[in-house]
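sry for the spam today, last one i promise. struct tokens for design, 426 residues
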């Protein structure tokens, strides 16, 4: 029965992609982040669903006129430069077979994301894409949160099978990234049923992140909580809710959980923490010796025989400082853009949406930046989706601002013409 349901859903997505290619972008997001066919039990579980959808979207994109050129944004150029630099470092990698395999894996992540830039050509479509990503992660998180509460947080919660964030630590970060995206939906909708659903989902998503037993996720949660309070329009209501939630969590969480979190203060005595620090030092010293090419994909096997456990170390250790500069500029440039863009449209009637989009997306990106200090997720599709969404937000906002500016200027011109005509009559 489950196989039939997943197969019907896949066929529905294929039909939607042929009917409206931009719906295919949403379907790709669902099969990338939720990966529904991985929950099937029979033959459907082994179907290359994402690859099939990708081909359908590619064909429908060529056939449709409802598309746009790539946005003229510096981040698009830097993205392609980074991708090309990955190719160069792969040719010099220490483990060519593993490096080429990882390069093609990353390329398979990057190529479908380009459809986002081409087919998501209106703000309404972008809104639906953000909702789709948030719900794809949120559905599994709500299920995991319920499981965590019912079992007293005694078991770890994992992500969707066969995804980049199946592992409990990565899933917790993905959940924390998705929370501001759901809050964006909350701010942009007036449907009371949707709002009640989001209010109910977010505490369970926090519970799922807590039940990952991830120290990095715990730090990320702290930062995200403070920023959510800062951006809240109803701090007098939000602060007491967070305090009550914290006290309830303390009563539910097992003592072993607190023992694990306490190692954040005594990391010198924790073998895992000290092992990570040694790995970061090894990656840094190796990059100083090979600043332009690094070790190539999967270079940790040669340099330190231990996973990097940091997106930042992973990027400069595997590809050198040039690639790290390109990658880091994408992140910091997007954060700066999401901070400055609301100021450009401040006070313009009808453009309040820009502030909601920018601030919530900024929180998601900050959650990624904090969480990946301790996780090697520099090739995560969710990161590049956030960057491309920010590019589209800027494009739509500036276009709308220009149109509104033109309308205002035309109105002023008509007023001046009427005033001059009246003067001549007088």
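last one done:
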């Amino acid at each position: 029965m489950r196989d039939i349901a997943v197969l019907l859903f896949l066929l529905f997505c294929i039909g939607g992609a042929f009917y409206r290619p931009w719906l295919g972008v949403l379907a790709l997001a669902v099969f990338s982040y939720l990966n529904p066919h991985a929950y099937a039990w029979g033959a459907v579980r082994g179907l290359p669903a994402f690859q099939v959808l990708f081909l359908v979207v590619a064909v429908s994109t060529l056939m449709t006129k409802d598309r746009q050129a790539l946005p003229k944004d510096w981040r698009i150029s830097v993205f392609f430069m980074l991708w090309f630099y990955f190719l160069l470092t792969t040719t010099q990698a220490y483990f060519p077979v593993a490096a080429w395999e990882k390069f093609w894996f990353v390329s398979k992540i990057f190529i479908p994301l380009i459809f986002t830039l081409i087919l998501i050509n209106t703000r309404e479509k972008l809104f639906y894409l953000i909702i789709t990503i948030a719900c794809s992660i949120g559905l599994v998180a709500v299920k995991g949160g319920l499981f965590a509460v019912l079992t007293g947080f005694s078991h770890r919660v994992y992500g969707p099978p066969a995804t980049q964030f199946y592992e409990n630590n990565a899933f917790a970060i993905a959940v924390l990234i998705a929370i501001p995206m759901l809050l964006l939906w909350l701010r942009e909708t007036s449907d009371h049923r949707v709002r009640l659903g989001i209010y109910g989902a977010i505490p369970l998503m926090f519970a799922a992140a807590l039940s990952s037993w991830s120290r990095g996720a715990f730090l990320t949660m702290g930062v995200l909580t403070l920023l959510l309070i800062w951006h809240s329009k109803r701090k007098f209501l939000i602060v007491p809710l967070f305090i009550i939630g914290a006290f309830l969590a303390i009563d539910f969480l097992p003592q072993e959980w607190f023992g694990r979190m306490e190692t954040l203060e005594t990391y010198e005595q924790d073998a895992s923490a000290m092992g990570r620090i040694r790995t970061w030092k090894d990656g840094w010293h190796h990059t100083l010796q090979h600043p332009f090419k690094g070790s190539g994909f999967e270079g940790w096997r040669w340099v330190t025989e231990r996973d990097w456990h940091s997106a930042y170390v992973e990027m400069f250790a595997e590809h050198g400082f040039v690639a790290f500069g390109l990658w880091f500029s994408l992140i910091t440039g997007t954060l700066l853009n999401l901070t400055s863009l609301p100021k450009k449209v401040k006070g313009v009637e009808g453009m309040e949406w820009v502030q909601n989009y920018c601030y919530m997306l900024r929180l998601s990106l900050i959650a990624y930046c904090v969480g990946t200090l301790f996780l090697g997720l520099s090739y995560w599709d969710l990161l590049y989706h956030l960057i491309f969404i920010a590019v589209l937000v800027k494009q739509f906002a500036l276009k709308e601002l220009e149109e509104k500016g033109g309308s205002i200027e035309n109105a002023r011109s008509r007023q001046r013409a009427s005033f001059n005509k009246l003067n001549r009559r007088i």
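The CA atoms of residues 350 and 404 lie 9 Å apart. ok im logging off now
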